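seq as requested:
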Amino acid sequence: MNFLTSLEPGLTAKSDQPPVNGAVSLSQLIEQACTTVVNRAMQASHITPRRLFTTAETARYLMLPEPEIEKLMTKKELPVVRIGRRSMLDVHDIDAWIASHKERAA
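struct tokens:
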């Protein structure tokens, strides 16, 4: 199914001329298409966010160099989830680490 056939039934664009005999103007068709795209994008939010990060993703998340993340993992400051030979980090553990390193204003 292509995008245009997935729009509301009966919508057809003739031209930029005013609608004739129940036809829809091109601007109405474009507006309907935009609404459909936005609605589909909003429905994509049901996807579960990833919970496990690689070392590189964790480094980007914390804005730290990868060697620093590896050092934190080695010192067991950041718990590691092992999947085969891969070492992953749980986003909840990363967020807990952030919370434990917050300093209160004096």
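Residues 52-100 form a domain with the Arc Repressor Mutant, subunit A fold (CATH 1.10.10).
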